[in-house]
Amino acid sequence: MSVTSVSITVNQMVSSRTPAAIASSELVSNIHATLSALRGYLLTGNSQAKLDRRAMWKTMDAIVVSLMSCRSSLPAPKARTSGLKPRL
Q1: 31-53 pLDDT per residue, tens
Q2: Residue 28 covered by a domain
Q3: CA angle (63 as vertex; 38, 33 as ends), nearest 5
Q4: In a domain, 14, yes or no
Q5: Which residues contact 41 (CB under 8 A, 6 or more apart)?
Q6: Which domain holds residue 46?
Q7: What is d(CA 37, CA 49) in angstroms, rounded to the nearest whole number?
Q8: Domain tally, the chain
């Protein structure tokens, strides 16, 4: 392998997989935050927690849209199981 081919591979991974990884990590973080806000609302009855949770869901909707847009730039997965079916 040459340095150029490694550089090309790294650039492809960074440009296609990193945005998806960041978006999915933000999505998980926001899911935890909404559950925390729900617990706060159930414990205290504070209506501000409901408003915070609604805002977080709107943010998560935007993250899902960006995650789906990242999906089109990812390379197709390799079929690793194609050879297993005849053996089963």
Answers
A1: 999 999 999 899 999 889 889 99
A2: yes
A3: 20
A4: yes
A5: 47, 49, 50, 53
A6: 3-71
A7: 5
A8: 1
